[in-house]
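Section handout 9: paired folding examples.
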Amino acid sequence: MTQPAPDTPATPALAISGLAKTYASGVVALHAVDLTVARGEIFALLGPNGAGKTTLINAVCGIVTPSGGSAHALGHDTRTDYRSARRLIGLVPQELHTDAFETVLATVSFSRKLFGRSRDDAFIEKLLRDLTLWDKRDAKIMELSGGMKRRVMIAKALSHEPELLFLDEPTAGVDVDLRRDMWEMVRGLRERGVTIVLTTHYIEEAEEMADRVGVIAKGRLIIVEETRTLMKKLGRKTLTLNLAQPLGAIPEALANWNLALAGDGHELVYEFDTQAEATGVPSLLRAMSDLDIGFKDLNTKQSSLEDIFVDLVHESAAEKHP
């Protein structure tokens, strides 16, 4: 990959090429990952525990030294031009790391100075108010609840006004109010041009907020796709027919549709590919009519991103271990 030119509108917010990480123990955490994230995009990275999500973020942010490949933040090499790159990056890590004896205001203000930003009391106040921390500004970190400590971590990450923000499991284990505030904050940041890369176990967050989704498993980026396109391309629908009379078994004449019985024989379930040329639904209904199998009601359900995610991880595992 050609090195992106810094500070031009066409420069991607994040450009990763062949990024790999093998630990001294021999464990391969990342297998030559390639990824480009555009400016102003919200990109969600999904994967099970141990998939490599945090390692990827840490390699970009300079916390982990990659074994190979490169990463550029708005055109700045994160290794050879570390200071410039890191000044543009904000990171909210999974683990809570703050000075327990400092006050909220002091620790957030210090983080801003750490990145060479000039003092801006008005900005810090607005930031703390947006995160419902202003009333706690004089409280020591050790006195705060877990949710409030998480808010402080977010404030620290945003204190120097980064252009690229990494959120590593930002709402894991937090209350509903903070999760809602986080979603609103992320949308507001995107409106101001901030690029956001988040990892999450909450599939609904990716489905609700992300422009694109990447699925990573065992250090390999399986797929990167626009969220809606991924749903459309890989999503499946389930048709459930509520039968007028229960069936004890599926008739031989319906064997071609790969049906399943549910609800003690009162429901006939058919899963079909929404992208197939022929879904098989019209022919199924005709075949049921020919067999005098009536139904009182029917409903369809679209596969969620979680369903797709689980399928992709299982398919990847099957390919690696046939």
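Moving on to protein 2 of 2.
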Amino acid sequence: MNRRKKKKPQVDYLELAKEKFNAIDWQELKQRVLEKWNLLPKLHQRALMVLVPVLAILLIIPLPNSKPEQEQVSSAPSQRVEVNINTRSLSDQKSAQQQSLASDAWKEYEVKSGDTLAQVFRNNGLAMSDLSALVKVEGSDKPLSRIKQGQLVRFKLEESGQLDILQLEKNNQSVMFFRLSDGGFGRSK
């Protein structure tokens, strides 16, 4: 028993193409094309006489390899940017450095007995639509739903008065929610 695989016969495709090309009856093909051509209205014939050469030239001439700016930007390797975010609890952040960073844009609110986050938003003139957007990214530990008396809630407003950053303390750690470029919110751990 011979277990070797048989070699497939090699096909000379160039020779095969030449045979097919020589087998074409050019006189008959020319006559059929002329019959179809004469069935077309004169206006269509003229349009085809202009469009076919133009299309052939466009297919032959290569186009420049210019890409739109958006594609070039996205193909550039992404670079990581280090952002220093303080995630210590708010009660531990009373250092001189933190006091010097305080600005008019940051506001603080200490949660009173019976307060809900909705009441905190109402008391500080914040949009309830922002609260519903925050709840969507809250996470399974529910830091927004479980605020307690004495807890410190800090928020920063944009120049337009819209909520930009919300920071609150949870289990001696700070949880921060921030506005994304699409208008929604994201959360730091």
